Amino acid sequence: MTKMIALWCQAWAWFRTMEKREAQRGSVTMENVIWALAVIAIAAVVVGAITAYVKAKSGALLGP
Questions:
Q1: Distance in angstroms (rounded) separating the CA atoms of residues 29 and 22
Q2: CA dist., res. 36 & res. 43, Å (int)
Q3: pLDDT tens column, 3-37
Q4: Helix (H) or strand (E) holding 20
Q5: Residue 31's Cα: distance from chain center in Å?
Q6: CB atoms within 10 A of CB 39
Q7: 1 CB-near residues (< 8 Å, 6+ apart)
């Protein structure tokens, strides 16, 4: 009987551990999505700044 209770406790502990892993499974994915969006936003700002700078300089070279 004691062995059966010990096995049940091990199974219950394993199940609880797996349950916690499943609950945290999406957190890494969401973190990666947030970082990817941040990198895309920064890249968009940099491209916009470079484009504006080049257009301003090319306008100055062509003259009024």
A1: 13
A2: 11
A3: 777 777 777 777 777 766 555 566 677 888 899 99
A4: helix 2-62
A5: 3
A6: 10
A7: none
